[in-house]
Amino acid sequence: MLILLGGELIFFVVALPFYILFVLPRFPQNTLYAFVPPIAESAHPVLAILAGLATCAAGVGLVLLLLKVFGFEHFRFPEIEELIDTTSNSELALLYLAAGIGEEMLFRVVLQTLFGILPAAILFAATHIAYWKKPIVMLDVFVLALMLGALFAYTQSFWLCAAVHAVYNYTVTILYKKRIVTLDQPARG
User: Fold this and answer.
1) Residue 155 domain-assigned (yes or no)
2) I need a labelling partner for 30 at 20 to 30 A (CA). Which of 65, 116, 126, 130 fits?
3) DSSP bridge partners of 36
4) What is the value of pTM for the model shown?
5) CA-to-CA distance for 72 and 156, rounded, in angstroms?
6) By the 8 A CB rule, do 18 and 120 touch?
7) What residue numbers bound the domain in which 173 lies?
8) What b-and-e string marks burial along 35-69, b requiring 16 or more CB atoms within 10 Å of the CB?
9) pLDDT per position in the chain (189 positions), as tens?
10) Distance of alpha carbon 128 from alpha carbon 121, whole angstroms
11) Number of structural domains, the chain?
12) How far apart are CA 64 and CA 58, in angstroms?
């Protein structure tokens, strides 16, 4: 579990020097862009939180839709299933929080700020190496990255994007873990 946590937080460590060298100089002195304030002054806080909830719900809805349309076999990852089945909910929550923090720092705060939503979303999907042989899952990851990118563009909030990312991962996992969504059904033909 510690290796997984470290692996997710390495995104943050890699992103930090780029944030300091290339992102911060673009913004007024004495500000920590994307961190303080926690939601941009241009975004209404209630609407920002509602947008975050909508992003999470749309992401989970997309997974459920893709499962229904393409079948469960397109989502089978024995290693991930084993991790989910053998890890406590609190450990998974910690892992997904680390993923949200690390990945959103790199892909939204640094790469999206420097290059835009689309390049950041493509790179986000590309780094999910385990899914490369599952095009339906790659589509889901890419669309989620676009939605998180839009949320970040609106709120300029690292915190909100990291939280939405973590809650999305956790929600999809709990749906599987509680067998609300099961991968034991045959694929559609």
Assistant:
1) yes
2) 116
3) 32
4) 0.90
5) 35
6) no
7) 2-14+51-177
8) eeeebbeebeeeebbebbeebbeebbebbeebbee
9) 778 888 888 999 999 999 999 999 988 776 788 888 788 888 999 999 999 999 999 999 999 999 889 887 888 888 888 888 899 999 999 999 999 999 999 999 999 999 999 999 999 999 998 888 899 999 999 999 999 999 999 999 999 999 999 999 999 999 888 777 665 554 444
10) 11
11) 1
12) 10
In the chain, the amino acid numbered 100 is: G
Domain-embedded: residue 63: yes
Write the single-letter amino acid at 98.
A
Alpha-carbon distance values, 108 to 10, 26, 57, 79, 134 (Å): 15, 15, 19, 28, 24
